Amino acid sequence: MSGEIAIVTGGLRGLGRAMALGLLHSGRRVVACGHIESDIPDMIQAAGAQAEHLHCLALDLRKPAACDRLIAETQARFGGIDILVNNAGLTFTYFDPDRFTKGPKMSWELTDEQVQTTMDTNYMVADQLTRRVIPILLQRGWGRVVNVTTKLDTMNRPGSIPYGSSKAALEMASEIWGKELAKVGVAGVTCNIVNPGAGANTPGMSPVMRELSAVGKGIFLIEAEAMVPPLLFVCSREADRVNGYRFDATTWDCTIPPAASAVRTGRKSGFQMFPLSDCYSDVVDKSTLT
Fold first, then answer.
1. How far apart are CA 7 and CA 24, in angstroms?
2. CB distance 65 to 50 below 8 Å
3. CB 3.0–4.6 Å: which of 48, 58, 63, 199 could bond 37 by disulfide?
4. Which domain range does residue 204 map to?
5. Where do runs of H (alpha helix) occur along the chain?
6. Residue 85: CB partners within 8 Å, gap ≥ 6?
7. How many structural domains compose the chain?
């Protein structure tokens, strides 16, 4: 065992399940937290011989008290926290299940509850846990916060609210957390992003799209297990100096050393803003702009 202790939210199915099992089978002790209790037996079975190093919980992490319980149980069970993977999230199947057959809903067609629940799950859960976990990591002198956001064109395309806006909030928070950790200057405590980089073949994807992908039609969907190699890199000691970056599973190359793949595919987290002059490219001499 490496001695490292990881929390994975949304860890009982989909991307989170794959990442939790990847961390577990690489020698970490893992607390996998989801919201559907009936997922737990299958998760324990999948852990196999490593099941004794896995602890599963079903909690509604939108509630601050549930975040406190998750942290307390992790520390009581394994003696600390070293890695937090913020993966819990609601996708389009929650608020717009027919988008891939009837087209996306516009933002004004959504209910207050749909927007609030998605924002709470996709951003506030990560925010609540990160604010609680970072002081623990700083005290221990080493640790990782790893966030799962999404592609930029999934954040900002028409019909992407509230999923896109919730992930954009987490993207920007990731950049800020990385900068704050760099300012504090505790080497080895970092915040990075690991993304699918494409639609994923998980329960969060429309069944129609999953069926089309399975027969080679429609958009390509990556398998959840593709998240594991970049995740293991950012959680490794080799990545102690890597802070404030995003890595997409679709571009990760498992045929070369992890650090080489990271250098080839890593990008800064956050966004690059575009100047207003873009709107007037036909009339403005950009060479005069500073």
1. 11
2. no
3. 58
4. 5-288
5. 14-25, 40-47, 64-78, 92-95, 99-102, 112-119, 125-140, 152-155, 163-184, 207-214, 228-234, 258-265
6. 6, 7, 8, 9, 11, 16, 19, 20, 23, 146, 148, 231
7. 1
Alpha-carbon distance 198 to 213, whole Å? Answer: 12
* CATH number, domain with residue 34: 3.40.50.720
- DSSP 3-state of 113: helix
**Torsion 167-172-175-181 (CA) sign:** negative
Encoded tokens for 116: 């609030």
Which candidate, 55, 39, 58, 66, places its Cα nearest to that of 125? 66
What are 190's two structure tokens?
């970092």
Helix (H, G, I), strand (E, B) or coil at 284: coil
Q: pLDDT 10s per residue in the chain (290 long)?
A: 468 999 999 999 999 999 999 999 999 999 999 999 999 999 999 999 999 999 999 999 999 999 999 999 999 999 999 999 999 998 877 778 877 778 888 999 999 999 999 999 999 999 999 999 999 999 999 999 999 998 888 788 898 899 899 999 999 999 999 999 999 988 899 999 999 976 665 565 556 555 555 555 556 677 889 999 999 999 999 999 999 999 999 999 999 999 999 999 999 998 876 666 655 556 555 555 45
Q: Of 207, 239, 75, 86, which Cα lies nearest the Cα of 149?
A: 86
Q: pTM of this prediction?
A: 0.88
**Positive or negative: CA dihedral 170, 23, 262, 220:** negative
